[in-house]
Amino acid sequence: MFEFTKVTIDFETSHLLFPTIISCILALLGISILIRDRKRIATSGKHWSIIFSKMDKKRFFGTLFLTVLYFSLMVPIGDLWPNTGYGFLICSIPFLFLAGLLFLHEYTKQTILPVVIVALIAPTFVWWLFTDLFFLSLP
């Protein structure tokens, strides 16, 4: 009976819980979209050619590239300074800056300055919040 009240945490795999839950939810949503729009998707390639012709390819593929690069570099950089969160901090600042620049429509001092401020302050605040207040280690 006392085993029901005992909690054991496997720290080797505990960080995979939420990404697994989110992946399952996204997979279910994707399957439901495929089921709902199966006729339109299965017909000619016209549906996809319309979508591909209207999409902003620079921002779409740029965001995809930046996101993959961000998550790929965070752990190796974080391993240089273990349990400090510097991987998160060092990768998040350029990621936010480049993602902000990617979505700007005009490049002037008035538009770039807020991007720089957010790219510097937001990750630093989150890093401080997690490391000093919540005592959670970031990659």
Describe, in plain words, how this protein is organized in 3D.
The chain has 139 residues and is an all-alpha fold. It has two domains: 1-54, no CATH class; 56-139. Helices cover 72% and strands 0% of the residues. α4 (57-80) packs antiparallel against α5 and α5 (86-102) runs antiparallel to α6 (109-133). The mean pLDDT is 88.
Quick overview of this protein structure:
By secondary structure, the chain is mostly helical.
Describe the structure using short key phrases.
single chain, mainly alpha, 72% helix
Question: How many structural domains?
Answer: 2
Helical fraction equals over 70%
Q: Which structural class should the secondary elements be placed in?
A: mainly alpha
**Major β-sheet profile:** none
Order of secondary-structure elements: HHHHHH
Cα distance spanning the termini: 38 Å
Please tell me what the overall shape is: flat
Low-confidence stretches: none
- Helices, by number, come to 6
